[in-house]
Each structure stands twice: as C-alpha cells, then as structure tokens.
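Subject: for your reference before the review

Hello V.,

The reviewers asked for a structural picture of the protein, and I figured it would be easier to keep everything in one thread rather than splitting it across files. Below is the amino acid sequence we used in the manuscript, unchanged from the supplementary table.
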Amino acid sequence: MNDLPKDFRYTQSHQWVKVEENNLLRIGVTDFAQQQLGDLVYVDLPQLGRTVYADEQCAVVESVKTASDLTSPVTGEIVAINEVLTDEPEQVNESPYEAWIYCVKADDLSLLDDLMDSDAYLQFIEP
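And here is what came back from the structure prediction:
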C-alpha cells in the first residue's frame, strides 16, 4: 500500500483523482478498493458528455462479490471514458493506478481541497 502515487488525491470512497491540465481529472479506484472488491467482472462506465455533480453516482464497478457505486468528486462534464475496461475490467485489479475509469472536466477545482493526500489516505485505510 505504500506505493500510493504521491501526486494523486483520494476520496473516502476509495477513488483516486489525478489532476491534469485544463481542469481535467482522471479518476479510478485505489488498490485498497480493488482488493476489497475482489476480481472485477464488469465496469459500468458513465455516459460521455454527461454533466455530473459532486458526490453524484456516475459509474459502477462489479466484482464476483459485490457492486460498488463510483461518485464524481467534482461537478463537471464527463469528457473521456476508458472503453477498454468494458472488455477487460480485470485491468483495474492488475494496475489500479493506471487503469483509470473516466475523466471529468471540472467546473471548480476547489472541491479537491476536501480530498486526502496520499499520507492522509494511508492513515484512513490502516486499521
């Protein structure tokens, strides 16, 4: 778990957020989340072009054990989805910090101030 990307932000719902140029946020699930879920069998991607609001459910990951809703950390527009995951959801298990799920062009980045950095996230997940 100590291999958390230092430049990412993390949500309490175990999603990672990578801030890129022009208010673009790349979002996926953490290694901790994929371990808890088990082998992913399906990813329900959000609709491209959809406007999402902060904390709104916008995608679902399903494993052999359960399904888990993913919520947007910010308000903005879905500008990219990782369509490869439709046929290869196991990529999230294999490389959770490379297998992004969707990208949002954020209206306002100030909501990211409420997210955890890698040190805070490590403390959050440690028993």
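For the response letter, the relevant points are probably these. The chain has a mean pLDDT of 95. The chain has one domain: 9-125.

Happy to draft the paragraph if you're swamped.

O.
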